[in-house]
Every structure is written in C-alpha cells, then in structure tokens.
Amino acid sequence: MKTVLSGIRSTGHLHLGNYFGALRNFAQLQHQAKCFFFIADLHSLTTHPKAEDFHSNVKIILSEYLASGLDPEKSTLFVQSSVPQVCELYVLLNMLTYKGELERTASFKDKVRLNPQNVNAGLLTYPVLMAADILVHRADWVPVGKDQEQHLEITRLLARRFNKLYNVAVFPEPEAYNFGSNLVKIPGLDGSGKMGKSEGNGIYLIDDQKTITKKVMRAVTDSGPAGKGSPMSQEITNLFTLLSVVSEPAVVQHFRDQYDNGTIRYGDLKKQLAEDICKHTLPIKARIEEIYNDDAYLKYVIDKGTEEARSSARATMELVREAVGFKVF
Ligand code: TYM
Asked: What pLDDT is attached to residue 225?
C-alpha cells in the first residue's frame, strides 16, 4: 500500500489554491492509501507569527481540514511540532544539503525579494524541513500544488543522497501527486500570479456567498476578446483556469465557444464562476464553525493522530540512526 503525506502552513485561513492544490486530492486518496496530513506550524515560524495567535492558527487549519473531508478514522492528522523526530531528521538532512542548492530554489529567491529584511536560516532551509516531514514517514506520494514541485525535487535528491552515502534503502523517492495528473496552479483574482495567503487575491473556504460573489465580480478582466487567433489575455486565462477547476466541462466549453466567436460577456462568465465556486465551498463553510467549536472532538483527533505519527516517525528514525552509526552504550 502507498503512503501519502501532505501539509499546509498554519498561516491564516485556507483558500481555493490550498483546497484544489492539495486538500481535495488528499481527501480522495485517503480511502485507498495510508495517509498522513499535518499542519506545518514550524514552517509558519519563518515569518514570526505572534505567540498569542499561534494556537488559534493551528486550530483554524485543523477545523478547515476536517470540514473539507479529511477523515481522522482514515487519515492520521497531526501538528508538525508535536513529532520531534522531524527535527532530528531535519538536522541530519541539513548535513547533506549544500548552501548553493538551497539558494537556487525559486521559493527562497521570491521570499528574499519580497522580504529582504527577514532572510533567516529557517527560510533558506525550508525545503530541508519539508523533506524531513515527508521522509520521516517514508511517503511515496505528496499531494501538492505546482509551486511545491521544486521542493519535491530536493526531497528526492536528499533521499537518494542519504541512501547512497550510507548504502541503505531507507527512503523511497516521493512524487508530487495530483489526481488529474498535472499539478495545478490556482490563479488569483487580480490577473497576476497564483492565489496566495499573502497576496490578498484569494477566495477562502470560510467566505460566504456574498463575499465570494463580490470578489469574483471584481476580478480583473480585459476589454474583450481580441479576435480569432489572437492569444487570450492572462486575466481571462485565469478565469478559465478557475472555471475548469470548479465547473462541469460542458459549462467551460460553452464559455470557450462564446469567447471564440466573440459573443462572451465577462459578467455572465463571472456569475457562473461565483456560483460554481460556492457549490464547492459553502458546504465546507457550514461545517467549519461547528467543528472549530467542538474542542473535545479536535482533541480526540489530534491525540489519536499524534500517537500514530510519532509511532511511524520513530520506526523510520530507528533505521536512520542505525544507518548513520548512532549506537547506545
Ligand atoms: P502552503 O501553506 O504554502 O501551501 C499548502 C498547499 O497548498 C498548495 N497551494 C496551491 N496550489 C495550487 N494553486 C495555488 N495558488 C496554491 N497555493 C497554495 C501548495 O502547493 C501546498 O500544497 N511547503 C508547503 C507546506 C509543507 C508541506 C510539507 C507540504 C511543509 N512540509 C510536506 C507537503 C509535504 C506549503 O507550501 O504550504
């Protein structure tokens, strides 16, 4: 049986990118594989969140995971910082990772550009901690969005490097996973790059119908189809990408045909898009609040998941420690 693992940082509410990039694929896989899903609270520390917000950020993400369909009876749900073996493996993998390799990653370069005053070592070694998350459970498949592809490459590199250096076969080489085969990049509504928590261009699972409709109706468009054979603008491509994720293929085709013959009205396209987004997210929204307020249930889920995750990580670390040469006196 395959082992599947994924995680999301505990920084704010989950948006459509998180849901369609990672969560939904995972929720589907949990019926057929051994599944771990966790909250990356250590990773969130790279941006120095306030201590008083820390726990509620974790609780929000856990409630949103459960509301999105992660089933604690099928999957192991846990918080990264409560499995200390991750930190031990992180230290060991750091010894096998070269500064230049980390400096070259696109996510690091982006962060340096956006926040030159906070280029901490945790940011540089972010992919190593991520590799430790994955390898400590010897995962085969990692449901993630397109932006994580390079991190998965580093994870595979470190798995190979460890196995080769110590002449063992402890780690499998994990693959980024998506049901629809291609990794997705959910665009933002501002016509530019991807939907993100810090970009302010997102639709969140907790948004109500009015908010979603307002955000979609305000999405950036162009002045109209440029005519047959002309390339589609980035703004409209983004709306079609979102539509293809949330709507039926026939609906997408209908608007595509209208675009091609120049009769499309962007207002109609947006109205449809908002409706179809709501179909996915409103049932989730309805569950989030109820779960968030059920402390006994959340404690049950986390106690169970922590135990399972620690036991899985302990088993890997026994093999790792033996490979490295640690011995008890
Ligand atoms: P985070 O919180 O930035 O993103 C969590 C997941 O959401 C996906 N995602 C997107 N997918 C498609 N389109 C988007 N616009 C979009 N925005 C976010 C991300 O690809 C990711 O799958 N480093 C991870 C957290 C992590 C992790 C791990 C994941 C830490 N350790 C081990 C898997 C395995 C991250 O980017 O979190």
From this structure: 84
Atom of ligand 1 nearest to the CA of 145: 20
Q: Is 225 in the pocket of ligand 1 (CB under 6 A)?
A: no
229 pLDDT band, cuts 50/70/90, is confident
CB of 228 within 8 A of CB of 260? Answer: yes
Domain extent at residue 180:
3-185+295-324
Total tally of structural domains belonging to the chain: 2
6 lines ligand 1 (CB under 6 A): yes
- Distance CA(127)–CA(220), nearest Å, equals 33
* pLDDT tens column, 173-198: 999 998 767 899 999 999 878 999 87
Q: Using an 8 Å Cβ cutoff, are 196 and 202 in contact?
A: yes
CA count, 13 A, side-chain hemisphere, 182: 4
Give yes or no: residues 255 and 308 share one domain: no
Q: Dihedral of the CA atoms 128, 85, 58, 143 (nearest 10)?
A: 50
Q: Is the pLDDT reported for residue 296 higher than 90? A: yes
Atom 5 (ligand 1) nearest CA: 8
CATH code of the domain in which 255 resides: 1.10.240.10
Are residue 162 and residue 232 in the same domain, yes or no? no
Kindly state whether residues 39 and 126 are assigned to the same domain. Answer: yes
pTM beyond 0.85: the answer is: yes
Quick one: 174 and 75 in the same domain? yes
Contact 148, 177 (CB under 8 A): no
Is 76 within the bounds of a domain? yes
